[in-house]
Design a protein that fits this description.
Bound molecules: flavin-adenine dinucleotide
Strand content: 25-35%
Number of helices: 11
CATH superfamily of one domain: FAD/NAD(P)-binding domain
Distance between the termini: 41 Å
Mean pLDDT: 95
CATH architecture of one domain: 3-Layer(bba) Sandwich
Largest sheet: 9 strands, mixed
CATH topology of one domain: FAD/NAD(P)-binding domain
């Protein structure tokens, strides 16, 4: 006989939706995974923290996947003539982060989902939900599913959230992230670089010995200027920033763009629906932490039901415990990323001087740098 208390609905076909399904299935839940069509031409590159990679290792993905991850061992941040360097050696870790292709990760997740007892359904044409104290019910096009809990993993613009009694605050950064790759003629080893400029933040993240994955968060006017440029003129603009540090810049890939905003909610759950990943918190990508934060949502959810084995994980008592476990981590990264974005985009000469002094000071303080590294690698 079907046990509704063991039944869970996962809604969303991104990384967080897939990983949530795998996590709950391995803990004995009867998982119904509602997915939308995945854009096949899309591939994004993420910097995964060592903590996230360690947790992914518990998901039984193939060694071949982990071999594709490219380690970052050193990150240099700079503003004008001030630089500060963070290295994995200083905290005795093999890497500060690992660069990962979303396509490769989704391939592993999809193949694991297919090999497990996870039922998948297509998203309904129109979303109809009943969320009560007793159960949650979703109406799909040809079936109704009733469960103890629904995990909304449908991203920052979550349609599920629109049906809930959850207030969200959206902050538009008035910035657009240009995302692309390029090759260079010099060996870049495992070194990343982040330039905090007056009108943008340029992050160069190595994905092989001679290729960078780039996230260039630009203000509106710079974006408009760059958008018009052909590859040759675009390279000239890049060279103005990076100089000759990497030799020749070659093979610029297609440039994709993402408008940047932050979405913060007043709570993580409403009755029996809980928000996970970007549906729960979308942050600025300058610290490369959005997906890592989402993975930690799943890690903490799993820890919560291992520590407090509720027969019904849709009960308010359990969801409150989970929410409490996520409050500090989420708050810290929301504050850090929006604070850094704010201060580095000020046009004031005084603030600029303070920032330059601050970066120079940071370079002399190993204890502060190591504290920041330990936060980022968790
Ligand atoms: C430029 C940029 C660079 C970034 N770099 C990093 C990085 O280096 N490291 C890092 O940790 N994070 C990074 N992030 C953040 C990261 O991309 C997000 O945090 C992460 O993608 C969130 O995953 P998610 O599964 O919660 O949401 P999403 O990736 O948005 O996935 C949501 C999924 O739900 C699906 N969906 C939507 N509606 C429905 C529906 N009706 N039914 C079913 N499914 C639905 C969508 O199709 C989508 O597949 C970056 C973000 C940006 C913009």
């Amino acid at each position: 006989m079907e046990n509704r208390l063991k039944k869970v609905i996962i809604y969303g076909s991104g990384v967080i939706g897939g990983l949530s399904s795998l996590c709950l299935e391995r803990n004995g839940f009867d998982v119904c995974h509602v997915t939308s069509e995945i854009k096949k031409d899309q591939d994004r590159t993420y910097a995964l923290s060592p903590g996230s990679v360690n947790w992914l290792k518990t998901c039984g993905f193939r060694d071949k996947f982990f071999e594709t991850l490219y380690p970052i061992k050193k990150i240099e941040i700079s503003r004008e003539d001030a630089t500060s360097t963070f290295t994995s050696d200083s905290v005795f870790e093999p890497a500060l982060a690992y660069m990962c292709s979303e396509k490769n990760l989704m391939k592993e997740i999809t193949s694991k989902i297919q090999s497990r007892r996870i039922k998948t359904y297509s998203e309904p044409k129109e979303l109809k939900l009943k969320n009560s104290n007793d159960h949650v019910l979703i109406k799909l096009d040809d079936k109704n599913i009733s469960a103890s809990i629904l995990m909304a993993c449908d991203g920052a613009n979550s349609t599920i959230k629109e049906h809930l009694n959850i207030k969200k605050k959206v902050k538009n950064f008035n910035q657009i992230a240009l995302v692309f790759n390029f090759k260079v003629s010099k060996n870049i080893l495992s070194n990343a670089k982040q330039y905090f400029l007056q009108d943008s933040i340029l992050a160069l993240l190595p994905i092989s010995t001679k290729t960078f994955s780039v996230v260039w968060s630009c203000d509106q006017s710079l974006f408009e200027k760059l958008k018009e440029k052909d590859d040759i003129n675009f390279i000239i603009e890049l060279k103005k920033i990076v100089g000759n540090d990497y030799g020749k810049i070659l093979n610029i890939s297609k440039r994709n763009s993402f408008p940047l905003s932050m979405v913060v909610n007043n709570k993580f759950y409403d009755q029996r629906i809980v928000l996970m990943g970007n549906a729960a918190h979308a942050i600025h990508p300058l610290a490369g932490q959005g997906l890592n934060l989402g993975i930690r949502d799943i890690v903490d959810f799993e820890k919560c039901f291992k520590s407090y084995p509720y027969a019904d994980i849709g009960l308010e008592g359990f969801l409150r415990r989970f929410e409490r476990s996520r409050r500090i981590d989420t708050f810290e990264f929301i504050t850090l990323t929006s604070g850094l974005q704010w201060i580095f985009s000020r046009k004031s000469k005084f603030i600029n001087k303070v920032l330059i002094k601050g970066i120079k000071f940071l370079e002399t303080r190993d204890n502060i740098k190591n504290f920041l590294i330990k936060k980022a690698i968790s």
